[in-house]
TrEMBL record:
Transmembrane segments: none annotated. The keyword Transcription applies. GO terms for molecular function: DNA-binding transcription factor activity; sequence-specific DNA binding. The keyword Transcription regulation applies. It comes from the Bacteria. Residues 203-230 form a coiled coil. This is AraC-type DNA-binding protein. Pfam families: HTH_18.
Length: 342
């Protein structure tokens, strides 16, 4: 078993340490870091960027070829780590021999400790893993001109208290965070636009992980939330099917049979994943599909209504206006006007 030592929380120094310990080729562009790894110890890549409000974002997509311990020893700082596992699993602890928390696929983990404790990640040999880590510096910046309300709230909620030295939380399964990370991966813009999009998306992911913690505490009190990882995957799969084929006349019975989930499980899953009922999700999917057809095709409104699986033009106009605050005809006419004047 190999131990990789990191003695800093500064993003540039973290990547220099990782390259020294793991090898690979480090590329740096516009404050973004990407370490490409392909050797006898590890293959894959580790990327990261430093953002506003003393926040850094790192993403690991690696397969270690032997058991690895990644130990962060920083006696001067004590960041809060907001982690999400997209594939595989890893363990997190505060000492090599102490209790470990296992972070499985689709789970959020939030970890922090006093500076005298180590932050340790444990990786198994040949276990392909993808996970992200939002690192929030918990120390107050004495040079800051204004109070950082975000950091103060995070410290209040997620730093150890009542005489404890560590804070460790592993959440329930959450596919929405995984989808948001995929959106982050899909950002193709360059320069300041790219930086703004990454910054905004990472803050949204951070907000979602905080909300996940809040909901888990509430559900624990209410004994709510019974879906397994496999059932959540089934919900995601049936959601994608609806988005690909909005024209089908769906019923809860049909979707229940196709997904293998009971109607109540299906409703619970859609509420967790989309914050909508099944019916609301289908309706919203059709409206969004229709909006895209208005922008990208020459179909008239009646043809679009039929194409997305609706039968009433007046009903479609009603729900379109509720979502976009204008009629579909007005939206279509102004799309054509813009095309002529562009």
């Amino acid at each position: 078993m190999k131990t990789v030592h990191i003695n800093t929380n500064t993003i540039s120094q973290i990547f220099n340490s990782l390259q020294t310990e793991l090898g690979g080729k480090l590329n740096v562009s516009h404050q973004e870091f990407n370490l490409v790894l392909d050797n006898t110890l590890v293959e894959g890549n580790i990327s990261g960027i430093s953002l506003d409000n003393n926040i850094s974002f790192m993403k690991y997509d690696v397969t270690f070829k032997e058991d690895i311990i990644l130990k962060n020893q920083t006696t001067a700082t004590n960041p809060i780590n907001f982690m999400y596992c997209s594939k595989g699993q890893l363990s997190y602890g505060f000492s090599e021999s102490g209790t470990k928390k296992v972070l499985k696929q689709f789970q959020t983990g939030i970890f922090s400790s006093d500076p005298n404790k180590d932050a340790i990640m444990f990786f198994k040999k040949d276990n392909s893993i993808k996970f992200s880590n939002i690192i929030v510096d918990a120390l107050e910046d004495k040079n800051a001109e204004s109070i950082d309300l975000l950091r103060n709230q995070l410290v209040k909620t997620f730093m150890p208290k009542n005489g404890e030295e560590t804070f460790a939380y592993v959440g329930s399964f959450n596919l929405k965070i995984g989808e948001k990370i995929q959106q982050l991966d899909a950002i193709s813009q360059k320069g300041i636009v790219r930086n703004l999009l990454i910054n905004g998306t990472v803050h949204v992911i951070l907000a979602m992980e905080i909300q996940q913690h809040k909901e888990d505490l509430k559900n624990l009190k209410n004994n709510f939330g019974s879906l397994t990882k496999s059932e959540m995957e089934d919900v995601k799969e049936i959601s994608t099917f609806i988005q690909n084929y909005p024209e089908i006349q769906y019923s809860l019975k049909y979707l229940s049979k196709k997904s293998g989930l009971s109607p109540s499980k299906l409703q619970e899953g859609f509420k967790l994943l989309h914050n909508r009922t099944v019916t609301d999700f289908i309706r919203n999917t059709r409206v969004e599909a229709a909006e895209n057809l208005i922008k990208t095709t020459d179909l008239n409104i009646s043809e679009i209504v039929y194409t997305v699986g609706l039968t009433s033009r007046s009903y479609f106009s009603k729900i379109f206006k509720e979502k976009y605050d204008c009629s579909p005809k007005y939206y279509q006419d102004n799309q054509h006007t813009l095309a002529v004047t562009a």
